[in-house]
Amino acid sequence: MRRIRKRSFEELVIENKQLLLKDEEALRKIEDRLEEKMLNKAAE
C-alpha cells in the first residue's frame, strides 16, 4: 500500500494559486470582490 504524503502549507497554497489562475470564472469573482472592496473604502 502506498503511503500518503502530507503536503506543506506552502505546497497547498502554490497548488491552489495555479488552479485559480486556470479558472477564468474564479478570477472574475475575485476581481469583482476586490473592486467592490476598493469602492467601499473609497466611499468611506
Beta-strand segment tally: 0
The average pLDDT score comes to: 89
What oligomeric state is this?
Answer: single chain
* Proportion of residues in helical segments: over 70%
Runs in which pLDDT lies below 50 for 5 or more consecutive residues are: none
Q: Return the domain count.
A: 1
Portion in strands? under 5%
Strand/helix succession: HH
State the end-to-end distance: 58 Å
Radius of gyration over all CA atoms, rounded: 17 Å
Count every helix, treating DSSP H or I runs of 4 or more residues as helices.
Answer: 2
Estimated structural class? mainly alpha
Q: Mind describing the biggest β-sheet?
A: none
Shape: elongated
Can you walk me through this structure?
With 44 residues, the chain is mainly α. It has one domain. The protein contains two helices and no strands. The longest helix has 20 residues. The protein starts with 8 loop residues before the first helix and ends with a helix. 0% of the residues are buried. The mean pLDDT is 89. It comes from Sutcliffiella rhizosphaerae. This is FbpB family small basic protein.
